[in-house]
Design brief:
rod-shaped; signal; 1 helix; Immunoglobulin-like; 148 residues
Length: 148
């Protein structure tokens, strides 16, 4: 039988520790796993459009229209269609006496509140009669979409 010396024990022990350490290092760097993330899509919220009253119209007059638009979304939107209709309760005055010219191209609206002035956008027809002192209500219909 062969004799076991201190040197042999030391070499065998060192080899075992080195092999064990390298296996532990390899196992330390190797891993597997799985993660699940939940997400939800935002919904577009309708924008709010408010206008200031237009006073002092007379046949042939053109007045500016002040518009405030509030976009509550965290992203920009585009107003791509807008139409205006005028009505009056005056007996001898037609709602067509007033016209409102809105932009014919899309309007990009950033998040938050913005003010715009549409120059000479409200007009009273030159040939109207019977509208003196009449009050008009202009309704604006608009639609848009996400611009992000």
């Amino acid at each position: 039988m062969r004799r076991v010396t201190k040197r042999t024990v030391t070499v065998v022990l060192a080899a075992a520790v080195t092999l064990g350490a390298s296996s532990a290092a390899w196992a330390w760097w190797k891993f597997e796993g799985r993660a699940t993330v939940e997400a939800s899509a935002a919904s577009i919220k309708p924008i709010k459009v408010e206008t200031r009253d237009v006073d002092g119209l007379y046949p042939g007059a053109e007045k500016d229209l002040r518009v405030e638009i509030y976009n509550p979304n965290p992203f920009p939107v585009v107003i791509d269609r807008a139409r205006a209709f005028a009505r009056t309760d005056a007996e001898r005055c037609d709602g067509d006496a007033i016209s409102v010219e809105l932009p014919d191209q899309p309007v990009r609206v950033e998040p938050g509140r913005k003010s715009y002035t549409l120059e000479d956008a409200v007009r009273m027809d030159e040939g109207v009669r019977g509208c003196q002192g009449a009050n008009f209500r202009v309704t604006v219909l608009y639609s848009g979409q996400n611009a992000a």
